[in-house]
Amino acid sequence: MRNRQRVASTEAQYYGFGSGSNTAIIHLQKGDIVYVYLAQGFLYENDARFRGYASFSGFRLQG
Question: Rounded to two decimals, what is the model's pTM?
Answer without folding.
Answer: 0.61
